[in-house]
Amino acid sequence: MKIKIISFFNLFFTLFFFNSAFGLDPPNHSVKAKILFNEIYDINISEGNYKVSAELLLSWDGDINPFLKKFKDNIIHGEKLENFLKEIWHPEFLIFNAENPRTTHYKTLNVFEGKFQLFERFDSVLSIDADMPYYPFGDLNLNMDILAFSGNVNLMEFIPEEILVGHDDNEDLNRRVIKGNWLLDEKKIKSSQMQSLNHGGEKFSVLISNVNVKHKFMNSLLIILFPVFSIVILSLIINNYCPMKYDGSADWRIGGQMTLFLIIPALKFALSSELPVTDYLNFTDLIFVWATLIVSFGLILGILSNYYILSNDTNLLGLSESLAQKFLPIATIFTFSVILFYVFT
Questions:
Q1: Is 210 found in the same domain as 223?
Q2: Is the dihedral of CA 284, 290, 294, 297 positive or negative?
Q3: Which has more confidence, 227 or 6?
Q4: How many independent structural domains does the chain possess?
Q5: Distance between CA 339 and CA 225 in Å, rounded?
Q6: Domain end: 215, 230, 261, which one?
Q7: 148 in Cβ contact with 160 (< 8 Å)
């Protein structure tokens, strides 16, 4: 019995000191992170992606003496950096929502205030969820999800510090950083955890930066709403000022409505790169459907009126003209009000 007890304690102390000496339980590395966006451009809501040029600064505690002996307070890069990183623990990451591997322009390592600092500037194409039910109004979330793979959360965890849009982070420069018809609404950064499919379902740290942008109102007005409303108004004007009782009105009435009917899909095709692709009808989709219905009814009533006048059916001619000139304008306003109520409530 004594031999078993002694053997147990020998095994216990051996395992304890062995683990302590060789560090089988590595310490947790808290990696502080700062993100700066130099450029956010080519925001393509039809394909669901955007391009970014960004800078990432990671800092963490570690044994800095080997670095100071070799490089003192210098900043290293290139081959020196790559060789030294093989000798120490350092944070490694990938961009989880990148469509392709990021393109690194340059990377540096230095020691500042007793901590390692790893800096990287890179470009990447990132995917987004272009969920904009109020488009061309509303905002869009541009996320960049940075996933650690140097170890699970017990070894490495991101500590978000700051997110900057432009080096001076002021409104004038923000307009230069965010390209296209978008304006900065808000920005935030946070950390989270993601469960891995391998490693037995271990959790890894994720750094989530979010830049929320909104579409410029004047651009929406001029590119989308103004052309569509112009088509609808022209259709109503043709109905009212080209009555079938005058000779030659049939050509203007039917030909004009047919032209407007064909312009609507051509306009939507021209704007296809500007429109989000969703599995539901957003505000812009409903506006195009609304315009198509109004012009279609105007065209149908014009064809019917022409038929009635050729067949000398004055009663049905009066009814179709009344529908085109009185009922259709009221129906136009009513259906548009229904769309507004459906989308914005």
A1: no
A2: positive
A3: 227
A4: 2
A5: 14
A6: 215
A7: no
Q: What is the pLDDT of residue 28?
A: 75
Computed on alpha carbons and rounded to an integer, the radius of gyration of the chain in Å comes to 32
Same domain, 141 and 278: no
Are 157 and 26 contacting, i.e. CB atoms less than 8 angstroms apart?
A: no
Q: Are residues 130 and 232 in the same domain?
A: no
Can you tell me the distance from the alpha carbon of 59 to that of 33, in angstroms, rounded to the nearest whole number? 7
What domain range includes position 237?
Answer: 219-344
147 and 283 in a single domain? The answer is no
* Contact predicate 153/206, CB 8 Å: no
- Based on the domain organization, do 288 and 153 belong to the same domain? no
Q: What is the pLDDT of residues 91-128, one digit of tens each?
A: 999 999 999 999 999 999 999 999 999 999 999 999 98
Kindly report the pTM of this predicted structure. Answer: 0.76
C-alpha span between 235 and 232 (Å, rounded): 5
CB 296 within 8 A of CB 68: no
Hey, what are 14's tokens? 């051996």
Tokens of 137: 């109004």
Residue type, 125: V
Q: One-letter amino acid identity for 105?
A: H
Do 198 and 240 belong to one domain?
no
Least trusted range by pLDDT, from 143-152, 178-187, 217-226, 289-298: 217-226
